[in-house]
Structure formats: C-alpha cells, structure tokens
Amino acid sequence: MSNTVRVRFAPSPTGPLHIGGVRTALFNYLFAKKHNGTFILRIEDTDQNRYVEGAEQYIVDALNWCNIPFDEGPGKNEKFGPYRQSERKDIYADYAKQLIDSGHAYYAFDTAEELDFHRKDHEAKGKTFIYNWHNREKLTNSISLSKENVEKKLANGVDYVIRFKSPKDETLHLTDIIRGYIKIDTNILDDKVLFKSDGMPTYHLANIVDDHLMEITHVIRGEEWLPSLALHQQLYTAFGWNAPEFAHLPLILKPTGKGKLSKRDGDKMGFPVFPLEWVDPQTKDVSKGYKEEGYFAESVVNFLALLGWNPGTEQEIFSLHELVNAFELERVHKAGARFDPEKIKWFNHHYMQEQNNTQLAELFKAQHSSKLNSIDIGYIALVIGLIKERATFVSDFWELSHYFFKAPETYDEKAVKKAFKDDTAALMIALVDIIQHVSEFTAMNLQTQIKNWITSKEIGFGKVMMPLRLALVGALQGPDVFEIMFMIGKTETINRIEKAINSI
C-alpha cells in the first residue's frame, strides 16, 4: 500500500447527495489536504436497480460548489480507473473466484423462495434467521453439496450467489481511529453475499477490492458502515492484503437530537438537506438546495466541519485553509451531532459580511431585475454595503433597502404615532430649509449641520431624527439616516420630507 495518504469518497448515484454525504466528503478532503494526499471520487453503482439519471453529475457539481473538488476520479487523473464500479465488473468476478479457491467463500444456490421459507419459519419460532456456520451445511450451497453436483449446477447456469465463509469461534480485534479498540465474536456474523446472481458484486466485495487496487490508505466513512467493519477486515485478511486504517464518523441527528437526519426531514422541517437543488427525473418533484436558498458555500462547509469535529479551541469561524490545518480525525466525536438549522444561518450571516459588495449587487439585481434593471450596479453595491450587516441572505436585501430605490408609499402606523407630534410638521419644514443650504451634500456635512441646528435650538434629537427617518424610510429602521440622505440625494430627501408632512 502507498505511503502517501489516499482517501476516497464513494457515494452511490441513487439520488441527490445528502448533507451527511457532503460532510463525509469534506472530512476526507480535509484529511487528504492536511497530509498532502489525494482525494478520490469513486462512484459505487453496483446496484443498477437504484441508479438515478443525473445523480453522478449532481455529486460532482455539489463537491465543486463546496470548493472540495476531487483530485482523481471519473474523467480526471484516471491512473487507477475506471472509477465507476459498473465498469469494473470483470475485476470483481476474478477476486470472488480467488476467495472460493482459497476456501474463504462458497457458492450458494438457495432460491429466494427457500430463503423466505427459512425466515418465516424462524420468525414463527421467535428466532432470527442468520445464514452462517450454524446452518450453512444444511442449506443449498457448495459446502453441503458434492463437488460434482456443484459443477453440474454451474454448468447448467443455475443462479447462484457467492457468500463469504465467516469463521466459527474466533474473536476479531479491530481498531478504529475514532472509536478505538473493537472486539467482535465471529459466531454472531452472517455469511454476507459478495457476488450477486446478476453478475455484479455487492458493496462489500467491490469496496474492498477497489480500495486495495486504488491504494487507499484511510477509509473515512459514516457510522452506518461500522457493522460492516468486521467483514471488511476479514476480507483483507482472506486476500492477504494490508488493510487501510478506518475511521467511522458519527451520525448527523435531527434538530431534536433524536434519530438520524434523513432526506425527508428537510421538507418536513423547512430547511434544505441537500447542497444543491434536485429535480427528481421521474416525479419532477423539487427538493431545496443550500445554494439556491441563498447560502454561501463557505457557510455550509464551516458549519458541516463542526458537526462532530471539535478543534479543541473556542474558534468557530474557519476558512477552508484553516480547516485543513486544524483538522484531526482524533478530534472527531463518537456521539451523534445535532443538526441546527439556526446555526447554519448564523454562519451565513457572518460570511455575508465578507462577501464582495459588487458581486452581491449582481445577485441582488438578478433577483429583482424588474425593479433594479435601470439602477447602476455601483449604486446598488453602495447600498448593500450599508444594509448587509442586517442580512442573512441576498433575498433579505429588498426588504432592508427598498427605500434607497423608491420613496415609501405608506408609513408604519405605530411609528407615526411615536414620531409625529403636534409640532413635528413645523420642525420638518425648518429642517428642509437647513438641508437646502447644506453646501456640500455629504453624510458627514449633513450630520454636522443638522446636529448643530438641533443643539442650537435645544430640541430633543428624537423629535427630529425619528420623523426624519420615518419620512425617508417609511418606518423606524435602516442604517445611518445621514447615509440614506446622501445616497438618495438632496432633491429626493426634500421631496420625501415634504410628502411625509402632507401625508401625515
């Protein structure tokens, strides 16, 4: 096996990539980059019945959007290719035959009806049917049948599967980077199918063979594969190969903390569970994606990195480069990590502040093309610079900034009662005169001259500033009033104040 770190992300193209799969890919990527290694994408499509058109491209697009592209995989640096298991069919058949020849596997000819009978018979007796050492000599396989009978069935094309011959009365001693030492009694293991009657391998055989041939040094995968670790270790031993190191990541739990976060939970609970939007090719149903919902890739990556991993410090904000430097598998937790939809919004709000205002302006203008089509992109960018600290998504911008682009048509009733008193109209008329005579119309000059006037007249600041804000915005909200005045200009500022006087 190679001394250079080589890890793989090996999803099945059965639909959109779940956010848990993205985290698995991310942890593999971080580990590879931390050790100057290689991050490989392998498509595990041995179950052709579950294959979904477009799913493989979705996986690639999702990794690219998250800025964790694979180094090696389908169509990219294919020195260990092909990287789709469906294109490696002949390879697996040879290795399955090797296991039979070495006595570690056997042909099983049991029909689906026969196995169903045994299961129901066991259920009726309050037992669970397990195909292994305690009954395999009584079932229809190459252990119980004569060599001649087996050869005859094979020659006649009788359907069969190849099962691993799990040993009896042995103890397996396993090690996991995250879980530590694990001890398994082989008597409780079943004889898993390695090769199916359709001529395709199961995940177990294909996974082990591919990891060996692709020189994978570390297998970093979800907790759901922990029960398979015993079989996989036995397969490495049976082939006489050195096994990679294993690390099984904790589950991502529902926001309630109870149960694994599923693909259906997003629709039920109102948040995405996929990185990108997915349109089901059969039903045309649309599932929301983080990208389309307005999340930044940096937010998703930063959030996912802290789901089950702790850097050992209070730091929460990490760039991808910082994550690579800080990441250690030994600091990944065993316990499940609760998915918090509000926390990822918190990350998005943070990364919103770091975005380029002109790029945000382009996104904003595209969302509201009918309203902003004639507005200069530079002006929109300046507006965003003033209001984005209150925004979590680009979709929040219009609500926060509409008064920069058009005068308010209505005024908040509660704000009117609070801001407009009997003497307000007279104060606003006087204020208009002050504004008319501001020589250089800048936010700083406006602030200086208006505040000096208020102070000289011994007027309460609220008596002027509240109705002024209400006139400009239509509500008692928004950024600095003087910045708003500067942005909309002297003429528009005066028009809005006079409109408010007449309307209110």
From TrEMBL:
SUPFAM superfamilies, A to Z: An anticodon-binding domain of class I aminoacyl-tRNA synthetases, Nucleotidylyl transferase
Keyword Cytoplasm carried by entry: yes
Coiled-coil annotated residue ranges, if any: none
Subcellular localization, as worded in the UniProt entry: Cytoplasm
GO biological process: glutamyl-tRNA aminoacylation
Catalyzed chemical reaction(s): tRNA(Glu) + L-glutamate + ATP = L-glutamyl-tRNA(Glu) + AMP + diphosphate
Residues reported in the UniProt entry to bind ATP: 263
Domain Glutamyl/glutaminyl-tRNA synthetase class Ib catalytic: from-to ranges: 5-346
InterPro entries (UniProt xref): aa-tRNA-synth_I_cd-bd, aa-tRNA-synth_I_codon-bd_sub2, aa-tRNA-synth_I_CS, aa_tRNA-synth_I_cd-bd_sf, Glu-tRNA-ligase_bac/mito, Glu/Gln-tRNA-synth, Glu/Gln-tRNA-synth_Ib_cat-dom, Glu_tRNA_lig_a-bdl
Residues annotated as domain Aminoacyl-tRNA synthetase class I anticodon-binding: 360-501
Pfam families assigned: Anticodon_2, tRNA-synt_1c
Ranges spanned by the short sequence motif 'HIGH' region, renumbered to the chain: 11-21
Single GO MF annotation: ATP binding
Keywords (A to Z) from UniProt: Aminoacyl-tRNA synthetase, ATP-binding, Cytoplasm, Ligase, Nucleotide-binding, Protein biosynthesis
UniProt EC number: 6.1.1.17
Gene Ontology cellular-component annotations: cytosol
UniProt keyword Transcription present: no
Identification of the protein by name: Glutamate--tRNA ligase
Species the sequence originates in: Yeosuana aromativorans
Recorded name of the encoding gene: gltX
